[in-house]
Amino acid sequence: MVKTLKLALGALAFAYAQKPRADVQNAYEQFLKDFGKHYDEVEKQARFVAFAENYEYIERENAQ
Fold first, then answer.
1. Helical H runs in the chain?
2. Range in 10-19, 20-29, 37-46, 55-64 with the lowest mean pLDDT
3. Distance in angstroms (rounded) separating the CA atoms of residues 30 and 36
4. Where does the record place the Cathepsin propeptide inhibitor domain (predicted)?
């Protein structure tokens, strides 16, 4: 079950992580540092996907 979840999260992360914007990547790294988050690489990439989607959503909303 855990292995399947990691594979699914890895595929999702790969789909998004082709070329992340530098500002989103920097914000994510700062978030990890500020809140003391530590993940293995698969989970880190999967969580980045969610972070980036939220980040971009907030940018769109703030632009209105």
1. 2-16, 22-34, 41-63
2. 10-19
3. 10
4. 28-62
The residue behind tokens 């790969």 is 14
Residue 25's identity, in one-letter code, is Q
As given in the structure block, the two tokens for residue 39 are 């993940």
Mean pLDDT of the 1-22 span:
67
Q: Are 51 and 28 in contact (CB under 8 A)?
A: yes
Are the C-beta atoms of residues 13 and 48 closer than 8 Å to each other? yes
The residue with tokens 């972070």 is 51
Give the position of tokens 């909303």: 61
